[in-house]
Specification:
The chain is an alpha/beta fold. It is 34% helix and 24% strand. It contains four helices and six strands. It has helices spanning 19-24, 45-54, 71-82, 103-119; strands at residues 2-6, 27-36, 40-41, 58-64, 91-94, 124-127. Strands 1, 2, 3, 4, 5 and 6 form a six-stranded mixed beta sheet that branches. Helix 3 (71-82) runs parallel beside helix 4.
Length: 134
């Protein structure tokens, strides 16, 4: 099973992603960036979700987690951004950087964010790598 994640940088100069080509290349699912931190909302989120779904792909949404921002505020921004959007996967946190914060604070804020998202009735998942919290 092959999948990808996409964000606004995959739209250089406003280019549209050809989702039928992506699907033809063997990708069956995509996670589309919805938000980052407390204030960024991906302007291509709805377009990418609709395009991927029209190409027959399973679709999820992710939030690029910022450890230097409040976890509750990030979670609420994420939930608001995906409200009413049909998704096939739990809401995903992409945790790649500590933003120069200590590991304990990073984990506390990420736990806060996951708790708030679950309180809104969503399941959560996180993707990361071992050195992200250092």
């Amino acid at each position: 099973i092959k999948g990808i994640d996409v964000a606004s940088y995959q739209h250089p100069n406003g280019a549209t992603i050809n989702w039928h080509e992506v699907r033809a290349a063997g990708y069956t699912f995509v996670f589309v960036k919805a938000t980052e931190g407390v204030s960024y909302k991906n302007p291509y989120f709805a377009e990418d979700v609709a395009g991927a779904r029209a190409a027959g792909m399973l679709v999820g949404a992710y939030h690029f987690f910022r450890s230097n921002d409040d976890g509750v505020t990030q979670a609420n921004a994420f939930v608001n951004a995906v409200q009413g959007v049909h998704l096939d996967f739990p809401l995903c946190f992409d945790y790649e950087t500590s933003d120069n914060q200590g590991a304990a604070l990073c984990h506390e804020r990420l736990d806060q964010a996951r708790t708030v998202v679950r309180q809104h009735g969503h399941r959560t998942m996180t993707y990361t790598y071992p050195s992200a919290s250092t």
